[in-house]
Amino acid sequence: MKDLFDKIYKDKGPLGKWADQAEGYFVFPKLEGEIGNRMKFQGKEVITWSVNDYLGLANHPEVRKVDAEAAKQYGSAYPMGARMMSGHTNLHEQLQNELAEFVNKEAAYLLNFGYQGMVSTIDALVGKDDVIVYDVDAHACIIDGVRLHMGKRFTYKHNDVASIEKNLQRAEKIAQQTGGGILLISEGVFGMRGEQGKLKEIVALKEKYNFRLFVDDAHGFGTLGKTGAGAGEEQGVQDQIDVYFATFAKSMASTGAFIAGDQEVIDYLKYNLRSQMFAKSLQMQLVVGALKRLDMLRSMPELKEKLWENVNALQNGLKERGFDIGTTQSCVTPVYLKGSIPEAMALVKDLRENHGVFCSIVVYPVIPKGLILLRMIPTASHTMKDIEETLEAFSSIRERLENGTYKRLSAGVAAAMGN
Ligand SMILES: Cc1ncc(COP(=O)(O)O)c(C=O)c1O
Q1: Which DSSP helix (H) or strand (E) runs through 205?
Q2: What percent of the chain has pLDDT over 70?
Q3: Strand 333-338 and strand 371-376: pairing?
Q4: CB of 244 closer than 6 angstroms to any ligand 1 atom
Q5: Residue 218: CB within 6 Å of ligand 1?
Q6: Which of 87, 119, 239, 346 can bridge 410 by disulfide, Cβ–Cβ 3.0-4.6 Å?
Q7: Which domains does the chain have, with CATH numbers?
């Protein structure tokens, strides 16, 4: 019989196998200093394009002050216990009410982390007779939630309306046999490519098919829509989203998340979400901090305006220089280049060391082989100078990628990896 750990010794997994070459630099890099447009990487200042602090709230003096005061008043323990047992407070309730109002829903419920909360919400919404239909490019937390499901599930081609309809038809057949219902899950914004989920088209399918729509709007909340209520508001279909989800990890620059929907649905989830029933309540300093951030989202529209000014300057600048930024419809700014993983590593090193530009790099298996995706997140705290310097740097790296410089520089690494 095999030792359970045999596989660990032999195979580190699709990303772990790069650890020797990548750790500390390409993965698990240490960004130091105050969160903002410029931070320190290995002692050197870099323009930071990999932090989801969309509205620049992470280091806003008013936010820092409220966070510090809340920590002083409540410590990091209060309240102890799960919400249902001993972890419930007026401020948790107040935050839920304000979040619900902000996203135009009757009620909301807090989640400790978006990831677990998403897994748990999917788990609570479906039983074995129900069918899930979801986008093939869904975030890992959706995939893991679907994994818990004991019944049928169908993926549809990314944002493809014909494929959505085909899979709704398949789901309907099964649901008619089992006597169950259908849950359709999409993201408001797909975090890698930046496309918005086709919520308007999905909602139109409600005329023909009987399903409920669950939207993970992690990247849309605070960045899209007239008031910042997200992708549903942007597309004019917020009222047709049956369960709305957003995390505090992006625009809100914090930790925690929430779901929102009709009162009866949220009441049901409150009593059935295992991630909240069997885990400690969101700590008070996060709740107080979220109330402050939400207040700023509502009262300081200039933050979102500045964010979009920067998004447009960066995305237009890249397009004008002939870069392929795909079909993004959000702040998420992908830059697609062609090259191998070792070339991508040499390119990112050049960007960081010689141009002081820090952005995340995404390679196979997250995207197809032979493509390099540099993923950039503009925020309200970036300046035009940051954008201009970055655009110059990008022109330079493209030239070096095309003239084979990175291929030569990475030849040793490529040989060692058998690439
Ligand atoms: C689309 C999406 N859903 C869910 C999550 C998970 O949220 P959290 O960081 O609060 O666990 C993330 C990442 O933060 C995300 O990008």
Answers
A1: none
A2: 98
A3: antiparallel
A4: no
A5: yes
A6: 346
A7: 6-54+301-416 (3.90.1150.10), 61-299 (3.40.640.10)
